[in-house]
Amino acid sequence: MTSITLAQGDITRQTADAIVNAANSSLLGGGGVDGAIHRRGGPAILEECRALRSSRYGKGLPTGQAVATTAGELDAQWVIHTVGPVWSSSEDRSELLASCYRESLRVADELGARTVAFPAISTGVYRWPMDDAARIAIGTVRDTSTGVEEARFVLFDDRAYEVFAARLD
Predict the structure, then answer these.
(1) What is the largest CA-CA distance in the chain?
(2) CATH (domain of 12)
(3) What's the pTM?
(4) What is the pLDDT of residues 70-111, one digit of tens each?
């Protein structure tokens, strides 16, 4: 059974087998977690992302899917990039958000990763409400069969940490 833990702080400072990146579909970096991972991880991540774009993902990585690259200078072996959905008040995209976590765990299993650090996917510029995001994230990880021993949610601020902690109890 996967142990679910919480940490507060900068995901790029975590030590884990794999760090999950809340990527944009271009895989070429962006703002928020995506930009931070690319900046701290260095050019090796972008180089592998460019190779993925020129081969399997010419149109970008689809929302809800996941793919791995090197972790570059991060204290991890791999970065698992996943594209979260933009929150919508008129369309239920919960399954796409859940898919980000399931697909990231599937990729982690393929790699043999035992520890995975997740951000709160889609809660930044994609505006997913934190409480609903925490419900989906924790529920999906709990319900997914995986060889991952520890799934760590790394929350950037006090509010996010408190929301995830309340959902974990």
Answers:
(1) 44
(2) 3.40.220.10
(3) 0.97
(4) 999 999 999 999 999 999 999 999 999 999 999 999 999 999
